[in-house]
Write a structure and sequence with these properties.
The chain is mainly alpha-helical. It has helices at about 1-10, 15-35, 40-60, 65-70, 70-115, 120-140, 150-180, 180-185, 195-235. The protein has one domain (about 40-230).
Length: about 240
Amino acid sequence: MAYHQRSASAPSSPRSNKPEIEQQLQGLSTTVSSPSATIETTCHGLRKLEGIYSSIEEMICTPSNQVSLCQSLQRKAVEAELGRSLVLLDLCNAMQGSFMELKMSVQELLLALRRGEDASSQVKAYIQLAKKAQKQFKKISKKTISDDKECRAVMLMAEARRITISLLESTSCLLLKQIEMPKCSLVSRTFQKSKFVCEEEQLWALEQSIGDLETGVELMYRRLIQNRVSLLNTLSS
């Protein structure tokens, strides 16, 4: 019980919080790069990232760090990170739009199944949307490359941003793979009752997963905005 109370409390100083943030980032990076990653682990990763960004914001808002971040060299690094944060916000916004379109595509697949129709066109539409999300991701994420290492806080933000990009990239790949399970039978005009139930359950689960991803990205989007506001307030103080 004492451990949980200690982990939930605010850090006594930025120095004590840094190793914890680094450890969380390292663990999350390992999870993201794992070949066994799933949509469920991705949703968990998004929740972890939201907490990590919250911890970074707490560190930024300490008086000692606010003074440090306003110094000449570090100020330039912070301003550069502010610019890159806009690109990350654009990426999150684009992913939310893609999730909405994919959910609608899954709903159309479900309707086709219930009517006993050939669902090949709906399957193709889903695949096209998933590939479109990947293209949007690659186009936007290229703008977020950074090699600034002047400031410890900026380094943590940059690492969190890198992991966020990797996580969103793996999400688009996982969503593309999800349709492969029911695809073979979905394009058939003949439906056995057991297969229909199985496919319907898979699609319901997929729709729920996309909704969970959408919620996770939205929460992280809000946290990123709060971090950006904290940085701007620090530079203007």
